[in-house]
Amino acid sequence: MSLWTGSAWAQVASLPRSTPESQGIASAQIRQFIETADQKVNTMHSFMLVRHGQVVAEAWWSPESADKRHVLWSLSKSYTSTAVGMAVAEGRFSIDDPVLKFFPEEAPANPTDKLKAMRVRDLLTMSTGHQEESKVREITDQTWVKTFLNHPVPHKPGTHFQYNTPATFMLSAIVQKTTGQTVADYLKPRLFDPLGIENPQWDANPEGITLGGYGLHVRTEDIAKFGQLYLQKGAWDGKQLLTPEWIAMATSKQVSNGSDPGKDWDQGYGFQFWRCRHNAFRGDGKDGQFCIVLPDQDAVIAITANTRDMQGELNVVWEKLLPAFQKEPLPENPAEQAKLAELVTRLKARDPAPPK
């Protein structure tokens, strides 16, 4: 398998490659996106575009490279959600199970009614009832699970969206409690191996529980494959890795998280996936890590970066790439393909802007 730009590493890549034009996208428009992103996003690290299951463009900003794993930050959450979906399909537990069911030994002596009402579903949708995140990393004289369960729950679970990384950790802990494996190990034969995601690195907490909400490191193409799995409603290479029903629930709006039509963080939240504008959905992580799935365009966009303006990063996608998708193949354009191939050879990452 060879890449149309002639990159040697693509000989072992698992997603097929083709020209942008053959999949209905003009190479010139992809080049304009990369140039704009390079100018406006400080700083881009990588980009991959998949259309109709074919990689049509890919770029790395030196010193990043195709074979280098990248920190995903909270994009890890979407992989944890996937583990939950698989465990539920295997009958390990239900999303309607109360959280306390799994950790009776770590529960408060007199749990509140609101804590008793917290379900796995509420962990998935970031609607645990917390007003703020629990400080699981900072309280060192007890386990992270105990710290979470002893944190105040002022709101009725399911009614109040509050971004909550410890809630994702609890999902990881539940998978480990019910399967006897860490999320990292549990996903290896069920997700990582089938997708050809080699040697993913995922950090664990002091008790040996996969962090869940962050800590995963994979390559750019591994992000693209993950998005393609969701675009294909859980099917991969003739096998159903996730049920279409789970995919539909995980990527649809389960809770409201705002009302600004111009913000991609106000479009609703699913099961560790965000809804986007333009009928898209995504997993994302701090500093600009994105797995964007566009069902209407049959496309996936993977991006890694180190930026302080994630909305600005997404805006470049909507402004420059979204209009590029055409329904039919376009005439091949070797001259523009050559310009695009030349551009990606000279991209260099810059020092990111300091936090505001």
Overview of this structure, please?
The protein is of the alpha+beta class and 356 residues long. The protein folds into two domains: 8-68 and 219-233 and 264-346, DD-peptidase/beta-lactamase superfamily (Beta-lactamase); 75-218, Beta-lactamase, CATH 3.40.710.10. It contains eleven helices and eleven strands. The strands form three sheets. It has a six-stranded antiparallel beta sheet with strand order 2-1-11-10-9-8, with helices on both faces. A three-stranded antiparallel beta sheet has the order 3-5-4. A two-stranded antiparallel sheet has the order 6-7. The N and C termini lie far apart (45 Å).
How many alpha or pi helices?
11
What is the distance, rounded to the nearest whole angstrom, between the alpha carbons of the first and last residues? 45 Å
Order of helices and strands: HEEEHHHHHHEEHEEHEEEEHH
Structural class: alpha+beta
| Biggest beta sheet summary | 6 strands, antiparallel
Task: Assign the CATH topology of the largest domain.
Answer: Beta-lactamase
The CATH class of the largest domain is identified as: Alpha Beta
According to DSSP, the number of beta strands is: 11
CATH architecture of the largest domain: 3-Layer(aba) Sandwich
Give the fraction of residues assigned to helices.
25-40%
Main sheet: strand order: 2-1-11-10-9-8
Unreliable segments of 5+ consecutive residues: 1-13
